[in-house]
Structures are given as C-alpha cells and as structure tokens.
Design goal:
The structure holds two protein chains of two kinds.
Chain A (H helix, E strand, L loop, with lengths): L6 H8 L3 H9 L17 H15 L4 H9 L11 E8 L2 E6 L4 H19 L4 H7 L1
Antiparallel strand pairs in A: 1-2
Chain B lengths: L6 E5 L10 E11 L2 E11 L6 E8 L5 E9 L2 E4 L1 E4 H13 L3 E7 L4 E9 L4 E10 L2 E3 L2 E6 L12 E4 L4 E5 L2 H4 L7 E2 L7 E9 L4 E5 L5 E5 L4 E6 L10 E7 L5 E4 L7 E7 L13 E7 L7 H14 L7 E7 L3 E3 L5 E2 L2 H12 L9 H10 L7 E6 L6 H11 L2 E7 L5 H10 L4 E4 L5 H12 L2 E3 L3 E2 L11 E2 L4 E7 L6 E6 L2 E6 L5 H20 L4 H5 L2 H4 L3 H13 L6 E7 L11 E4 L2 E2 L7 H4 L31 H4 L21 H10 L12 H17 L10 H13 L5 H16 L7 H6 L5 H16 L1
Parallel strand pairs in B: 2-16, 4-37, 15-38, 23-24, 23-27, 27-28, 28-29
Antiparallel strand pairs in B: 2-3, 3-10, 4-9, 5-6, 5-10, 7-36, 8-9, 8-36, 11-12, 12-20, 13-14, 14-15, 16-19, 17-20, 18-19, 21-22, 22-33, 24-25, 24-26, 30-32, 31-34, 34-35
The chains are: A mainly alpha, B alpha+beta.
C-alpha cells in the first residue's frame, strides 16, 4: 500500500475534514504536504499526527495545548504584539503611533500629525530662507 | 516625491504590517416590520505572498436564513448554488484542490455560520455579497431590528477557553457536537479589526414616528411618511457589538404586507397589534422569576435585574403566587414551591435576591427545569432574565419544550443570543425582548412583565391559508405576526379567531418584490422553527446520521421549496480561472472579531485559562481592563428614556445604587407596594394619601393603567383606591378626583416624585393639585 496520500484521502482516513487539516497546518500543528502544487502528498506521519491530535482533543485539550504537548510549543513571544499605526508624511518622515490608545486620543494624535504634515509641506517662508543665509 | 499620509496597522515588535484578511463588512438592505432583507458585503483581501483561505464566523439574527451570495472581484463574478451540505462541502473542496476561487457558506448548530473563501490570490480583493433574510422584534407601536457585527463568547460545559498573551481569547467547542465549525478569536481591542457599517432603508405601511439606535450613532433621513434611510453617522465602526435600530410608528393599527408573485399567488405577512384582541383577562398569576447570575451578568445587569424583579413582585396580590430561582452552574431556589404574593413573602424574596451575586457559567437547562418543578401539576409562566450566552441551544430548547411551561425572556447583551431567546420564548408560547447593556434592564423587565403576566387572548386560531400556526396566546404590547398566501383559492382575507372574538383583514396586493420578501421571510421562520426541533442527539450527530432524521428531512424540503440555506443545505460557488494553480495549498486565516462590548472578558476566560501547560503562552486577562468605546448612541426620545446613564463596563459590581433618577424612584415605589395594591401606612387615611400620591407620581411620568412600563402597577393602585372605604367625605372626594385623573391618564403639575419619596402626610398637596387640575379642565 502506498504511504503517500492526497489531502482528500488524508481527510477520509483520519475522519478530519480537509478544511480542518488546512487549519491545523496554518496553526503549525501539522507539517504541510511533502511537495507543492499538483504533487502535494501527505505521509503516514501526517495521518499519525492527526490521530494524536484527535485523541488529545477528545481528552479536552485545546489546540494550543496540543501544539505545546506535541512539539514543546512555539517559542514564546518576547513582547506582546500591540499594534502600531504608521503615518507616512513625506519620503523622509514617518510617525509611529500606538494603535491601542483610546479613540479620543487617537483623534487628537491624528489631528496633530495632520497639522505637522501640513507644516512640513508648506513652501519655505522668506524669513526661514533669510535665517538660513 | 511626496506620499499621501496613510495609516496602516503594524506589529509593535517586528514593525510588519498587520494583514487583515477581511477588511470590511457592510450591511445594506431593506427593513420591514415583518422582517429584513439584507445584503452583507464582506471584503476579503490577500496581502500575503501566497493564496489564502479565509474563514469568517458569524451568528444568524433571529428567524434568519441565507439565501444566496455573489462573489466578485476584478474581472470576475460568480453566483452561489444551493446544495445539500455534504455536496456543497465536496464541491468546495474540489474547487480548492483545483486551485479555483471557492466560497462556502455553511450553517452549524446555534445558527453559527462559517463563510469560507479559499484561494484568494496574492494582492487580490474578493467581495462576497451575501443575502440574508431575518426577523425583527415586534411591538404594537414599532419594532426593533438587530444585526450581529460580532460573535460573543458563550458558555458550554465542555468548551475550553484561553487567552494568549497578545490579548486574544480563544474558545474551542467539542467536535462531536459542533463538527468542524471554526470560531473566531476574540480581540479585546476591536479598533484594529475590519471596518463595519450600514446603510439601510426602513419601509412600513404606517407613518414612521421616530427611528433611533441605542447601539450606534446613526443618521436618519425620514421622508415624513412611511419610509426612511438610516446610515452609520461615522465613516466606519468596529465589530464589537450588534447593530440595534428601533422604529416607532405614529399609530397602532394592523398592517398587511403583500405582493403578487409570478404564479398569481399573493404571499402576505400580517402584523396584528395586541390591542385588536381586547383587554387582559383576570385571574391569579403563577410566575417564577428565573435569574441568570452567571459571571457574564456581573455588575449593572445583575443589580438592575434584581431591582426589576422586586418591582415586578410589587404588582402581585395575595392571590398570586411566585417563585424565585437563580442559576449559574448551580441552581439556587428561594422556596421549594410557589409562595403567595403576600407582603411577608415578597420581603423574604427581597432578602433572597440581595444574596444573589454573579459567578460561574450559564447552565440554563438546570435553572429551567428547577423553575418548572416549582409549578407542580399546574401551569404558569417563567420569566427569565439572562444574557443567554450559551452554546448548545438546541438541547436547551428541546428540554424547555418538554417542560410544558410558558417562557418569557428578557435578554441583555451588546452581542446577542437574540436568535436563541426568541426561539425559546416562541417555542414555549411566550414573548421575548432584548435590551442592550446601555438601556435600562429594570424598566424593560417591568414593561415585559406588565405585558405577559396575563394574556389578552387565548385559543388563537387562523384560517387555512396561514402558515405556520399563530401562537395560542396573545400578550399586551406584542402583536401577532402571521404569514400566508392569498389569491390561490379565492381567499383574499386573513381570518383570526380566539376565545370570545375574531377578526378579518383584507389582503391587498402591493409590489411583487414585497410579496417575494414576505414569502422568503415565511421560509426563514419555518426553517428557524424546525432547526430548533432537532432532538439533542440528532443535533449533535454527524451529517450522514442526521439525514435519517425527520427534522432534517423537513429542513431539506423547506430549503428546497424556499431556496434558502439551513443546516441541511449550504451555499457554494466555485470560479474557474486561467490562473488557477491546482494542488496549491492556501494558507488558512480565521477572521478575528471584537470582544462583545461591555462583556467582562474574565467572565469567559479567567477560570479556564491554561496556566499549567504553557505559562509563557497563556495569560489571564486583567479584570480591570478597559474596553473600546463606541460612538454616542443616537436614540430618539422614546429610546433615550430607557438608556442607562453609563456603559456597563464602567459600572463596578456591587450593591444596587441608591435611587438617583426618576425611574429609580419609580422602581423603588413599585417594589414597596403592598399585596392589596396600596402603599403601606399606619391607617386607612395614611395609606390612601400615600397611594394617591404615588399614583400621581406615576401619572406625571406618563404611566397610566394602559400605557407605560408601570401600567400594571398603576392599575393596581387605582383598584386599591376604588376599593378603599372608611375615609372622611373630604378625603374620599380627593381620592375620587385622583382616580378620575388616572382614568384620563394625566396628572397636574407638581413635585409628585419628590413628595412620593418623602415621608409624611400630603393630603394638602394632593388636594391643591387636584383643584388645579379641575380648574384647568373647566377652562
């Protein structure tokens, strides 16, 4: 019996829907197929791994726990991935703003950045030119 | 070269763009008093260097079904097909294997839908226009439309939940019950997620009085007649709460929406206000108040619910009987059987309620069964106050039906289980209402209790052209909605009969589009009813086993007849393009949603955080965390009166706050009423004075014996005064004048609220008020 199988075959053998298998791959619970494109195949290890995931789920484990239990888990993140917003003002100027500030604060910051941006785009005034000379 | 300023989300550490696989969700369509016909635009974009499979999960609104979708992008467009779920999944998977753009809309248990779009190519934008039909919450004088922009976490005894360090909550449900349904992750900060918004038209047969929203800031353009357009006032919003729109009519009259179809038939929907059926019947009440005290009710909702129950108890007489049950994952009953509504019992009930605090999960079934047992062999009504945040609702519905008790539900929440609670009430013959956390739960509860404590009609029957059968009982304030078809057998009227009465309404054909919409809404209603009837074992069974079920067979038939999806039939589209790359595995992305606004995160995640396995990966959310704020709700005056002063998340848990507003004082007065309907006092004269004063206080705020949330209380106060004897002639004259004012539904100007809450004898003030009213009437 061949040990390689398509995703549809893997799904049928394991009893896990193909969409769920892809979800597990995206979550890092399962390796992707051995080859890419039309030649993509899954091995007996894939099947074995899926059976193990099913078993652990039946015991009430969450997917993140299962990943940790099977592989020691992904490396913990160094810091929380709090979002930042990038405001590109000119080619040579960018402003970074924390994305999780309160809406009123964000509004205030955006107004300030807009003001800053408009100042930077103003044509140089005569006084500024004289000072430079 | 100058670059236009642009904001884009980035990760703090890597400074990489935070790619949103779904960028926008926009709701459009038409809302009628019988239901809504909507198109929801979902804009998906692949900003990665490989093809994506994007999964968006959402709950269906009440009485809803998916009709079809159109998937479109640059230079392509495809339309969905309705197939048996197994065949739809197969078609979708084959499309994915061929590398084709494929989309599947599949409904699971609890009305949760997974919209999956696979093989979205790098840098490609794909829009899915999904047509949904759904019901609305009807009242005699208007309706409430509710659409979920997020999916709230909910309780299930076998669910596992955790929070990652980045603040995302994750819930996984048992696969033996929920198959391959995928839930989103819950983000405490919804501001970095996809944009949401709406542009809706509201059309009615009656002139529209007022339109408002307790959930969003809206812009309303009314044409002064029967239609209006409602849009989000801001450019966009965040997905952390339902959209709630309230519409009030200028008059209370029956409405018949109908239109001729291609076959010459005239599908119709009729909305018959409860006032068409007569007045409430008399008789002792038998009621159990069932209070959800799960952790998700913590804070203002629970304290308001407690106060509401106390106020409802105030309307009971000694011939009425009541029970109190509080539940989380344990059940706590006030007494093992119903007790008479005497002052002493109600005071003990008050003591019981003060001990009820928020904790644990939501084991609604256990609470329901315990409450049902209190009735013994006789019937009665259960009045539930809950946020209804539970998974596995089909099992609860099956058990509620078997209990044979009428359930009335007051749901509380910013992201609702409106579908479930509406079904729970309807399937047991009751009424449901849903309020947002920004509204006053206590007033809504008192109002609902006034409506449901005694029906205005029973034994309601409809003509043969009406399907499904109408409810057996009609309650004041809630109209009867019936669907049917005219024109086929010459029956061009709607016929309703009930014990002691009957009515006929003509069906006049309008636009054919209206006819099609009401016909589809009828299909939605039938599908929703049948979906709630899966026996629990069948609901959890795999597809191939469910096929043998009677319920599944009926659902299949309904889906095919009406062209609507259900759990048995799904929508699928596959688009073959020259660029398809067979065998390419798309990367799965699950679209996150915002944590339901005003819901305490720790209610679902704190006790279930996995700390023993991987402490570095999981962390418990801080109970004091703040939540995203929302735009100021733009409610009309009728809605504004019922809004809380502040959002729930900012309200700390604790004892009920002291009486501060007029409504707080009225609630306090209502809860102090004696079982004979009067206010307490040391003798007849003192009781008469206190009762007349409280009556004036209620009247001054627009509550009359037939109108306002406190109408039952006002009616009881009037009855007490009418029955009172032994007063002096002078006092009796004053009392008679106050009763007359109550019947007119007016009160003279005066500081009645302040006087009613102050102690002492106030005959003088009452007399002077009455004289002013009489003088004014003579003028």
């Amino acid at each position: 019996m061949s040990t390689s199988r398509t995703l549809a075959e893997l799904s049928e053998e394991s009893g896990i829907p193909a969409r769920t298998v892809r979800f597990y791959i995206a979550r890092g619970l399962l390796e992707g197929p051995a080859k890419a494109g039309r030649a993509a195949v899954y091995s007996a290890e894939h099947l074995e791994r899926l059976q193990k995931i099913k078993e652990l789920q039946a015991k009430g484990r969450m997917l993140a726990e299962i990943a940790f239990e099977l592989d020691g888990g992904p490396a913990p993140e160094q810091t929380a991935a709090s979002p930042w917003w990038q405001h590109v003002i000119e080619d040579d100027v960018q402003v970074w703003v924390r994305g999780d500030v309160r809406p009123w604060r964000m509004k205030q910051i955006r107004a300030a950045v807009d003001h800053f941006a408009s100042r930077l785009r103003e044509p140089e005034s005569g006084k500024a030119r004289r000072n430079r000379k | 070269m100058s670059t236009a300023p642009s904001f884009m989300p980035l990760e703090a550490t890597a400074r990489k763009a935070l790619n949103l696989s779904m960028q926008r969700l926009w709701l459009t369509g038409q809302v009628l008093p019988a239901g809504a016909r909507l198109v929801v635009q979902h804009v998906f974009r692949c900003q990665e260097d490989k093809a994506l499979e994007v999964i968006y999960s959402f709950p269906l609104p009440r009485d809803a079904a998916l009709r079809r979708f159109r998937i479109a992008g640059e230079g392509f467009e495809a339309h969905s097909e309705l197939k048996e779920t197994e065949a739809a999944v197969k078609a979708y998977e084959e499309g994915i294997a061929r590398g084709s753009l494929s989309a599947l809309a599949r409904q699971y248990a609890d009305g949760i839908v997974n919209l999956t779009v696979g093989n979205v190519q790098p840098k490609e934008t794909v829009t899915v226009h999904l047509e949904i039909l759904c019901g609305v919450e009807l009242k005699d004088d208007g309706f409430r439309f509710r659409f979920p922009f997020t999916l709230a976490p909910a309780y299930h005894s076998r669910a596992r939940a955790a929070v990652t360090v980045s603040g995302e909550g994750e819930i996984e449900l048992p696969t033996d019950e929920f198959a391959d349904m995928i839930l989103p992750s819950f983000h405490k900060d919804a501001s970095t997620l996809h944009q949401v918004g709406f542009e809706l038209s509201i059309v009615s047969q009656l002139s529209l009085d007022e339109i408002g929203s307790p959930s969003h800031a809206v812009r309303v353009r009314q044409d002064g007649g029967c239609s209006a357009r409602v849009t989000l006032a801001a450019e966009k919003d965040v997905p952390n709460r339902d959209l709630v729109l309230d519409t009030r009519f200028k008059s209370v009259e029956p409405q018949v929406l109908a239109g001729r179809d291609r076959n010459g038939k005239v599908p119709f929907a009729a909305i018959v206000p409860s006032s068409s059926f007569g007045a409430a019947t008399e008789g002792p009440r038998r009621v159990v108040f069932l209070l959800d005290r799960s952790a998700s009710m913590r804070g203002e909702p629970l304290s308001q619910a407690r106060r509401a129950i106390e106020a409802c108890l105030g309307v009971l007489s000694a011939t009425d009987s009541f029970g109190l049950v509080a539940f989380d994952d344990e059940v706590l009953a006030f007494q093992p059987a119903l007790v008479a509504g005497t002052r002493e019992s109600r005071e003990k009930g008050h003591d019981f309620l003060t001990q009820v605090d928020a904790r644990g999960g939501t084991q609604l079934t256990r609470g329901l069964l315990e409450a049902a047992e209190l009735f013994g062999d006789e019937g009665g009504d259960i009045f539930i106050l809950t946020d209804g945040q539970v998974f596995g609702t089909e099992t609860i519905l099956a058990q509620a039906r078997s209990a044979g008790i009428r359930l009335h539900c007051l749901g509380i929440g910013s992201a609702s289980q409106d579908r479930f609670l509406a079904l729970l009430a309807r399937e047991t013959g009751g009424v449901s209402r849903f309020v947002t956390p920004r509204e006053r739960v206590d007033l809504a509860a008192v109002d609902l209790f006034a409506s449901v404590s005694r029906p205005v009609a029973s034994g309601l029957k409809a003509g043969a052209n009406i399907h499904p059968e109408p409810p057996g009982f009609v309650f004041s304030g809630t109209p009867v909605l019936v669907f049917g078809e005219a024109g086929q057998t010459g029956e061009n009227q709607i016929e309703l009969s009930w014990h002691g009465g009957g009515l006929k309404l003509p069906v006049e054909s309008g636009e054919s589009e209206i006819g099609e919409t009401v016909w589809l809404l009828q299909g939605c209603r039938l599908i929703a009813d049948w979906e709630s009837r899966y026996p629990s074992s069948e609901a959890a069974a795999k597809l191939e086993k469910r096929k043998q079920s009677r319920v599944a067979a009926r659902l299949l038939e309904l889906s095919q007849s009406y062209g609507l999806a259900s759990r048995e039939m799904s929508l699928v589209a596959v688009l073959t393009r020259p660029s398809d790359r067979p065998g390419e595995l798309p990367e799965t992305r699950v679209v996150p949603v915002g944590m339901a606004q005003d819901v305490a995160v720790e209610a679902y995640f704190k006790n279930q955080t996995i700390t023993d396995m991987a402490p570095a990966m999981f962390a418990c959310l801080d109970a004091s965390m703040s939540f995203g704020t929302m735009g100021t709700p733009s409610a009309g005056s009728f809605i504004r009166r019922h809004l809380s002063r502040k959002p729930r998340a900012e309200s700390p848990a604790g004892p009920p706050r002291a009486s501060e507003t007029t409504e707080d004082i009225l609630l306090d007065l209502a809860s102090r009423m004696d079982s004979d309907g009067g206010m307490p006092g040391k003798n007849r004269a003192a009781r008469a004075s206190a009762t007349a004063l409280v009556l004036l206080a209620f009247l001054s705020q627009g509550h009359t014996p037939i109108r306002g949330a406190f109408r039952s209380h006002v009616a009881r106060l009037v009855s007490f005064l009418l029955a009172l004897t032994g007063l002096s002639d002078h006092q009796q004259q004053i009392v008679n004048a106050v009763i007359e004012l109550a019947h007119k539904g007016t009160a003279p100007a005066g500081e009645w609220i302040a006087l009613a809450s102050a102690s002492g004898n106030h005959w003088k003030e009452i007399e002077s008020g009455v004289l002013r009213a009489q003088a004014s009437a003579r003028r």
